[in-house]
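User: Here's a chain of 134 residues. Predict its fold as tokens.
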Amino acid sequence: RTPAVSPPSRWLHAMAADPRRGVVVLFGGEGATSWLADTWEWNGENWRQVTTATTPPARAQHAMAYHGGTNPQVLLFGGLGPTGYQGQTWGFDGTDWQLRASSGPSPRIASAMAFPESAGRTFLVGGRDAATGA
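Assistant: Prediction complete.
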């Protein structure tokens, strides 16, 4: 694919499919010279930058997953940003980001998230813990 618009180059970002809206959501990562806090959507043909009123702080090495159910949204957890390890949970409903929880699992990087529909809840697995480094 060679879309007319694409996100700037980056690494250590996270993405999650939003099947309800038929897009893949990308957030953050590290660019060539800075941490990123931008939101992009891929609809299978083109990228579109999403401007939101609220956004999580810039970060990389975070986890994202679609959470279905009665309040469907893409969830984001953890990561590492310019202020250190992050431990908040954010939700993106396709219009805006909302801080869902400021406490919960310990701040961490390089974890994974998944929403098995049969379980009806989102799971966070692994990663490197900020306190222990393990």
